[in-house]
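Morning run. Coffee first, then this:
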Amino acid sequence: MSQGIPFADAGIYRLTEECALVQSVDFFTPVVDDPYLFGQIAAANALSDVYAVGGKPLTALNLVSFPSCMLDNEVLAAILLGGAEKVAEAGAVIVGGHSIEDEEPKYGIAVTGIVNPHKMVSTVGCQSGDILVLTKPLGTGLLTTALKREILSETDIDAAIKGMASLNDKAATAMMEVGVSASTDVTGFALMGHALEMAEASNVCLVFKAAALPAYPRAMEMAKKGTVPGGSFRNRTFYLPRVDGADDLAPEIMNLFADPQTSGGLLIAVSSGKVSKLVNKLKASGTGAFVIGGVEKEPGGRIRIG
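And here it is:
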């Protein structure tokens, strides 16, 4: 299970020379008010780990905590419908699940997929000279925090909601067709944390251009106001000692760089000779393609931003 793959995005269990199981699980409390959209986002988020390694999801199990004495069952039905439709969009099937009574709603799925172990992509493999491509903008943590604090409405963060609910399937297909060095999906540990995992796994230095970091509409506004989720501070505490250049960043850039993402995009390292092909394929499929930095040999296991 993921043996020999540091910071793996999913559990990998080899069945045959050509086929391995890919398994992952994720669930969380609502990030939006609409229960149907919450179900879609939670499912897309959980499926992302399978796509990060270039796998194909096959089955899913629902994980549900719900206060049935406090909320109408129609809310639960809407959450499950959103999740089911997103799983179906991924070409997978919900085969069951488990629910418990809880004071706060929580929803997610456990996913099983397959991948060819000889073709799968992992956090290992970044090479000096590679280019870093991100497939979704940043800022979902900032925006959903603003939503919870009633600073913004769901209409204000519509672009981010659509982004969170979108699958990383097309991005995965593009990177597998092109052939890339390494990949990971960007979620709760923020771009900062997931990039560091890739840097450590590959023993290289990932270098980011602060001005190139993409953000959802209104995200930088919230970053400047300091509407920062608690996870951002935890990310800084744990990861900043291995980040060079952070002291020179504007506060809003740091807020974006450390922002915990929900259902974020893929961070892909690709050789300079293939980057144009990858970007073109991503854009042709309707997926974002943001060139945000590159890979250097030293110092290994660190990242730099400037």
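The mean pLDDT is 96. Good start to the day.
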